[in-house]
């Protein structure tokens, strides 16, 4: 059944390639050629009349896929046996479909590499038509290809591509996966040769079921000589060729559950030996190094273990597990969707029940509203009757209140006249009392005015005396002011004279300072000359101590060193300066 499914995928590509106008139908003449080629490649006896007899009732035009499938199953796939070259079969189908679908414009790979990717696509695609490869299988293939090229898998790049892919679709066709690999989207930094070698390695593993391949030395059975061969390990055999191009096959080592592989010690100048023991023969083989020897032994033991357990190749088993897992997830998803639909249906039923209850509640509410309206109408009528009775009672009460108000008004007028008479009597008494008080106040004011006039005359006399005193004081103040002005003028003149004397002293001080600076310059020049002379004498005559005359009197010491004059000279200078200072003051 697995063989039929794999063959159908390649035949589907060929059939769709013959469907030029994409109508889902192919002419019978093209189907004859396709059927003949399929029978030839798969080594099945071809019956040219069977196709005509099968479609003899369908003379209107082309044949659809559904019409061709019964013939394909009955006359071709039911007769097929696993004794033909699958690569020739795949290449025949590839030749039909690649001419129509393969776009070679931007591809970095050859047609041979594109064919290998097409075969890998058929192996990894789902058993649903039209054929497509899902995201999980795309990642599996790209991981294998990256490992075969010796690169590192970048998870983030594929995640970004997966997000981009999910916005469009969840899978790729064969030509899209060829374009994806051929344009170098996931092989940046790799050259074309590395990419081609990686595709070939993945093709050998997944399609040709090659577990391991490489050069080793094999010991002959007749001549017992050692010859280098290219070995190819498959699940049930080890084939060896003259070279890696597989042009000349030298033999096969058939494997089964009874075979074994063991390591051998070095002998006959050969190292890294091991032998494969089968039921009829044993084969001695020499690897290039210990690492490859161990890898070959482990790979052959893996094949033998799989044959004992009756299990397929690991990549086929993992593919089956991935499919079963996807099917399980899909079944769970369908079950979940079914439960969601059931819940939705139950929810809709609940909604209908709630709608029916709502309608009942609305009807009950309408009935209650009608009953309330009737009660309200009855209550309104009763209120109208009560209002009429109240209006009549109100009118009777108003009439009685008017009569009471009229009597009250007459009584109030009488009491008002009595209060007015009492007020007039009280006002007359108050007026008489005020008149008596006014006369007493007038007498008091008259006496007060007489006393004020006397005080005014006394104050006037005092003011005249104060005025006279002020006149005398002003006269005295004028005289003092004139004397103060004279003193101020004298002081101003003295101040100006002092300023002039100060400026003269400043100029004298400046002259003395200049004389002092000249003397200091002369002293410094003399000291420099003396120092130069001493240096010369010491240089020419050795260590000589000059005897200098001492000072005749006590020398004055200043902050800058010995002074240029003695204390006596300093006292004379001070006396001279004091006389010059006093002379301008006496002149003034």
From TrEMBL:
Q: Does the keyword Acetylation apply?
A: no
Protein's cellular compartments: Cell membrane; Cell projection, Lamellipodium; Cytoplasm; Nucleus
Q: Where is the PH domain?
A: 209-305
Q: Does the keyword Transit peptide apply?
A: no
| InterPro entries noted in UniProt | EF-hand-dom_pair, EF-hand_SWAP70_N, EF_hand_dom, PH-like_dom_sf, PH_domain, PH_SWAP70
* Record domain EF-hand: where: 6-41
Record Pfam families: EF-hand_SWAP70_N, PH
Region annotated Disordered, chain positions: 313-334
Q: Which SUPFAM superfamilies match?
A: EF-hand, PH domain-like
Q: Which UniProt keywords apply?
A: Cell membrane, Cell projection, Coiled coil, Cytoplasm, DNA-binding, Membrane, Nucleus, Phosphoprotein
Predominant cellular place of this UniProt entry's protein: membrane
Gene Ontology CC terms: cytoplasm; lamellipodium; nucleus; plasma membrane
Domain of life, per lineage: Eukaryota
User: Cross-referenced CDD domains, in alphabetical order?
Assistant: PH_SWAP-70
MF terms (GO), sorted A to Z? calcium ion binding; DNA binding
Functionally, this protein is described as follows: Phosphatidylinositol 3,4,5-trisphosphate-dependent guanine nucleotide exchange factor (GEF) which, independently of RAS, transduces signals from tyrosine kinase receptors to RAC. It also mediates signaling of membrane ruffling. Regulates the actin cytoskeleton as an effector or adapter protein in response to agonist stimulated phosphatidylinositol (3,4)-bisphosphate production and cell protrusion.
| Binding partners and assembly | The SWAP complex consists of NPM1, NCL, PARP1 and SWAP70.
For this entry, the protein name equals Switch-associated protein 70
């Amino acid at each position: 059944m697995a063989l039929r499914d794999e063959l159908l995928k390649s035949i589907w590509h060929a059939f769709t390639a013959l469907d030029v106008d994409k109508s889902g139908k192919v002419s019978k003449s093209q189907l004859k050629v396709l059927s003949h080629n399929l029978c030839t490649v798969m080594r099945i006896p071809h019956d040219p009349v069977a196709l005509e007899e099968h479609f003899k009732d369908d003379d209107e035009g082309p044949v659809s896929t559904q019409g061709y499938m019964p013939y394909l199953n009955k006359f071709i796939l039911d007769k097929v046996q696993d004794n033909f070259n699958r690569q020739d079969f795949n290449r025949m189908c590839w030749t039909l479909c690649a001419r129509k679908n393969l776009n070679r414009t931007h591809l970095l790979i050859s047609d041979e590499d594109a064919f290998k990717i097409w075969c890998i696509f058929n192996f990894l695609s789902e058993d649903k038509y039209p054929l497509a490869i899902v995201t999980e299988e795309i990642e599996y293939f790209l991981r294998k290809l990256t490992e075969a090229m010796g690169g590192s898998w970048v998870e983030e790049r594929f995640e970004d591509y997966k997000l981009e892919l999910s916005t469009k679709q969840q899978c790729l066709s064969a030509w899209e996966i060829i374009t994806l690999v051929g344009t170098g989207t996931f092989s940046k930094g790799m050259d074309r040769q590395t990419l081609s070698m990686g595709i070939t390695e993945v093709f050998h593993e997944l399609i040709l079921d090659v577990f391991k391949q490489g050069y080793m030395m094999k010991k002959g059975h007749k001549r017992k000589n050692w010859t280098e061969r290219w070995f190819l390990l498959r699940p049930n055999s080890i084939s060896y060729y003259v070279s890696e191009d597989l042009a000349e096959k030298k033999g096969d080592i058939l494997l089964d559950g009874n075979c074994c592989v063991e390591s051998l010690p070095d002998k006959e100048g050969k190292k890294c030996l091991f032998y494969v023991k089968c039921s009829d023969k044993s084969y001695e083989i020499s690897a290039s190094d210990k690492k490859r020897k161990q890898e070959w032994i482990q790979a052959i033991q893996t094949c033998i273990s799989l044959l004992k357990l009756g299990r397929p190749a690991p990549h086929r088993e993992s593919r089956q597990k991935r499919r079963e897992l996807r099917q399980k997830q899909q079944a769970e998803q369908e079950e979940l969707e079914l439960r969601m639909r059931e819940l939705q249906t139950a929810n809709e039923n609940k909604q209908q029940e709630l709608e029916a209850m709502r309608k009942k509640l609305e009807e009950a509410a309408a009935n209650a509203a009608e009953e309330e309206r009737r009660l309200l109408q009855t209550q309104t009528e009763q209120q109208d009757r009560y209002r009429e009775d109240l209006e009549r009672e109100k009118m009777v009460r108003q009439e009685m209140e008017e009569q009471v108000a009229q009597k009250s008004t007459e009584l109030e007028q009488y009491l008002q006249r009595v209060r007015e008479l009492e007020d007039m009597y009280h006002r007359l008494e108050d007026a008489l009392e005020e008149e008596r008080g006014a006369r007493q106040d007038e007498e008091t004011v008259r006496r007060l005015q007489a006393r004020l006039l006397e005080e005014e005359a006394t104050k006037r006399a005092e003011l005249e005396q104060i005025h006279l005193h002020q006149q005398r004081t002003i006269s005295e103040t004028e005289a003092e002011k004139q004397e103060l002005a004279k003193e101020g003028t004298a002081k101003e003149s003295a101040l100006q004279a002092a300023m002039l004397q100060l400026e003269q002293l400043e100029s004298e001080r400046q002259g003395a300072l200049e004389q002092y600076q000249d003397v200091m310059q002369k002293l410094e020049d003399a000291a420099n000359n003396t120092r130069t002379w001493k240096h010369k004498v010491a240089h020419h005559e050795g260590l000589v101590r000059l005897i200098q005359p001492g000072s005749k009197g006590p020398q004055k010491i200043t902050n800058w060193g010995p002074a240029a004059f003695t204390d006596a000279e300093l006292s004379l200078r001070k006396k001279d300066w004091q006389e010059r200072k006093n002379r301008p003051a006496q002149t003034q």
